Fold:
Amino acid sequence: MREGDVEHGFLVHPEEGTHPGVVLLPDVRGIYEHFRELGRRLAGEGFAVLVADLYRRTGRPTVTDASSAMRWIAELDDRIVLEEVRGSVDFLRGHPAVGGRRTGIMGFCMGGQYALLAACTLSGIAAAVSFYGMIRYAPDLDRSKKPRSPLEAARDLRCPLLGLYGAEDALIPLEDVRAFEEAARASGQPVEFRVYPEAGHAFLNDTQPERFRPEAAADAWRRAVAFLRARLGAGGGSGAPAFGRGC
Structure:
């Protein structure tokens, strides 16, 4: 496996050959070890992975609690972030480890929100996976920074989409998940959603024991890898350990 920091974030990929690409969009805290490990795990499944630095132009936020995280997200300019996603996708597609092969995106929390928006806005993305990405915007947000929410963009979905959510997510009501799913199906693109009972926000993050749900995490990761393989054309990987062990 090869890995290292690059202009657009953290890149990890198998040693030899070309591989389908995945741009991984982290949560509000940006790139930290949890997402480097997820990148390594995904690379072990046969993908070239770029954990994208979405804050190259804005700088990283100081996030102390959920309220400060939500305030930052509310003020973040979607246009700037989508430009960074666009640049990350173009960089990865052009990298020798990918060599122009199909490239998808996978996002978590804030990154999941931007995975949804990118899938409905940008060209050149072959598949998208959103882990508990926010869906609906508050009505008082600055529309110059937030032109449309993922829910408002859903009918413009441009690629196959897999959504993975917790039924007990305090940030994302289940009715929003179902509303997005229904609207996205009107695009004509393949849409799959899985909602996990007794799982809340960030259920895949095993660095947060109070949120981590091992069974839901293992099933969601398996579904995400299978979805990306089917849509991007990846071969089998080296066989990552069960989720929550060695990650």
The mean pLDDT is 93.
